[in-house]
Amino acid sequence: MKIFLVGFMGCGKSTLGRRLAARLGYKFVDLDELFEQKEGTTIANYFVSHGEEAFRKEESNILKYTDFSEQTIISTGGGLPCYFDHMDWMNANGKVIYIQMPPKALANRLEHGKEERPLLHGKHGDDLVAFIADKLAERETHYLKAGIIADGLSLTAEKLEEILASS
User: Fold this and answer.
1) What is the pLDDT of residue 120?
2) Would you say the C-alpha torsion 123, 124, 128, 130 has a positive or negative sign?
3) What pTM was computed for the model?
């Protein structure tokens, strides 16, 4: 069964996904990395060159038309679940886990992250927390359609494995 990880940027989708895949003997795919390989550029550069609408369409194509094996954990981009019919599609094609975290915890992780994230450019401290809170309020209605909602604050691959086994 395919397992899709959704949630806001910085919640741990890629890190937890890699660890869970290793525990289960599954393949791991990060859709953002797959996008960048396919397009030969970073998502940040793609956004600048082509705009968000083109990015969302291409991201959708990668999600729906990549032939993932059944034993694959797929980490999605933070915005992907909020466009088109992606949550319904993922729920129909595997198990979806929403890694839920509060805005302040996400801000702490993202403030000290090494990755360049286009949506966060120039935002720090309270401005970053407020931005995340607003974005999360918009996105959470989509995220909450996931079949499994996991508290991301102390989540480990071991806990995720237990949650999956009992679902």
Assistant:
1) 83
2) negative
3) 0.95
